[in-house]
């Protein structure tokens, strides 16, 4: 069950532009190379995993204590608007977007008809029937096709406009993020709270445009994500940020360990088209106001919510010592070492806590926090314990 349902391969993506024959570039790829980053293939993009002069642990701890800048321009940005857009999105997603206030954001998921996750996404409401959405790079081709197909079958969709766009997208994360970004804008960021967004000017970059900034991120720290479609402005802003003594560029290695400590999912690991939000322990994405509504996969998902005993496995946190667990490692019962009870979705050493943290799908009745289990790593069964997530308390900026 686990190998079929959990370990699905990453979907292919559309090639839009490239600095190499085989890989896509972001607006910052050449700058990463100049900064002596180790570049890797991530979802078809040439992306920095680590920068020279920083270890993974140093990068991770820098974000927890200072401010790190992540290039997330590989993610796909969408604008969707027009009459009935809210109703259309609520067919695809289980989240209540009607009650979402303008310039507020929410995590959600795009669902197939069986309740599986096509992709996770961040949805920002700009106005009634007007939204800005960010989806994953590795899912871009299927996301576009999925939305296009759903629109063509939606009876009231003739007035809905859906467009995607490329550009600079930077995540600025850490306790000093507000201090850093405030130096470049006249907008008072102290009044912008977690889950909110606005358009701000970036002073001193020769542009009269305002750029979308959202307070949030993928690390569990305070921070922002800024969308800058003007490539020249995006590059200049990135370089200007790095002039600060409290800012460093951060790559994919620390991004993964930071999100794991924060208990966040990564598509292709904790989420895929055969896993429902309930099985992924994301019940909260199904708004209470929508638990009698119809949406893609609602029959299965609402049944799981109403009958928790029908859900045989779910996503849980795990902690261990020694070699770090990785995606695909089998999990066995500590009282019956021949009985497989789960599979690891992802894992990493935890620079903040020491030891390892990870996420796994585990069968009942082994899901309770504190349950001892065994993980098969390098041919040996190694002890681990089911643990509460997030592993590190989030530090979101709230009123």
Structural features, described:
This protein is α+β, with helices and mostly antiparallel strands and 399 residues long. It folds into three domains: 2-73 and 167-261, Gyrase A, domain 2, CATH 3.30.1360.120; 76-163, 2-Layer Sandwich (Alpha-Beta Plaits); 312-387, Beta Barrel (Elongation Factor Tu (Ef-tu), domain 3). It is built from nine helices and 19 strands. It has helices spanning 2-5, 29-34, 56-65, 85-92, 140-152, 177-181, 231-241, 252-261, 298-306; strands at residues 37-42, 45-51, 67-71, 76-81, 104-111, 117-127, 130-135, 161-165, 168-173, 197-201, 210-215, 223-228, 247-249, 313-320, 330-333, 336-349, 356-363, 372-377, 380-387. A hairpin with a 2-residue loop joins strand 1 and strand 2 (45-51). Helix 3 (56-65) packs across helix 8 (252-261). It is globular.
Secondary structure layout:
Elements: H1 2-5, H2 29-34, E1 37-42, E2 45-51, H3 56-65, E3 67-71, E4 76-81, H4 85-92, E5 104-111, E6 117-127, E7 130-135, H5 140-152, E8 161-165, E9 168-173, H6 177-181, E10 197-201, E11 210-215, E12 223-228, H7 231-241, E13 247-249, H8 252-261, H9 298-306, E14 313-320, E15 330-333, E16 336-349, E17 356-363, E18 372-377, E19 380-387
Parallel strand pairs: 3-13
Antiparallel strand pairs: 1-2, 3-9, 4-7, 4-8, 5-6, 6-7, 9-12, 10-11, 11-12, 14-17, 14-19, 15-16, 15-18, 16-17, 18-19
Helix pairs in contact: 3-8
Subcellular location: Mitochondrion
Keywords: Aminotransferase, Mitochondrion, Transferase, Transit peptide
Family: Belongs to the GcvT family.
């Amino acid at each position: 069950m686990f190998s079929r349902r959990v370990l699905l391969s990453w979907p292919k993506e559309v090639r839009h532009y490239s600095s190499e024959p085989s890989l896509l570039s972001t607006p910052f790829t050449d700058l990463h190379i100049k900064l002596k980053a180790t570049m890797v293939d991530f979802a078809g993009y040439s992306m920095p995993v680590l920068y020279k002069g920083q270890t993974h642990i140093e990068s991770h701890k820098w974000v927890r204590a200072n401010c790190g800048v992540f290039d997330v321009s590989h993610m796909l940005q969408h604008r969707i608007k027009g009459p009935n857009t809210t109703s259309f999105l609520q067919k695809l997603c289980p989240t209540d977007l009607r009650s979402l206030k303008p310039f507020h954001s929410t995590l959600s998921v795009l669902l197939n008809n069986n309740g599986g996750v096509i992709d996770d996404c961040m949805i920002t409401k700009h106005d009634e029937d007007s939204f800005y959405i960010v989806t994953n790079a590795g899912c871009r081709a299927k996301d576009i096709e999925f939305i296009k197909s759903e629109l063509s079958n939606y009876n009231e969709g003739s007035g809905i406009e859906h467009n995607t766009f490329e550009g600079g997208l930077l995540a600025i994360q850490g306790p000093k993020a507000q201090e850093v970004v405030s130096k470049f804008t006249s907008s008072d960021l102290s009044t912008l709270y977690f889950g909110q967004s606005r358009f701000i000017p970036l002073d001193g970059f020769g542009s009269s445009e305002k750029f979308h900034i959202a307070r949030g991120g993928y690390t569990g720290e305070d921070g922002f994500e800024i969308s800058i479609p003007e490539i020249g402005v995006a590059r200049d802003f990135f370089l200007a940020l790095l002039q600060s003594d409290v800012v460093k560029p951060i790559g994919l290695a620390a991004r993964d360990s930071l999100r794991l400590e924060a208990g966040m999912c990564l598509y292709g690991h904790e989420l895929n088209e055969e896993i429902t939000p309930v099985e992924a322990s994301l019940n909260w994405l199904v708004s209470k106001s929508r638990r009698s509504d119809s949406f893609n996969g609602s029959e299965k998902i609402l049944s799981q919510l109403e009958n928790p005993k029908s859900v045989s496995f779910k996503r849980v946190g795990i902690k261990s010592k020694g070699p770090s667990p990785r995606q695909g490692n089998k999990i066995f019962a500590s009282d019956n070492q021949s009985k497989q009870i789960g599979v690891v979705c992802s894992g990493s050493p935890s620079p903040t806590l020491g030891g390892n943290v990870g996420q796994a799908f585990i069968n009942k009745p082994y899901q309770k926090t504190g349950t001892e289990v065994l993980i098969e790593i390098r041919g040996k069964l190694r002890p681990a314990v089911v643990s509460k997530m997030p592993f590190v308390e989030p530090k979101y900026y709230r009123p």
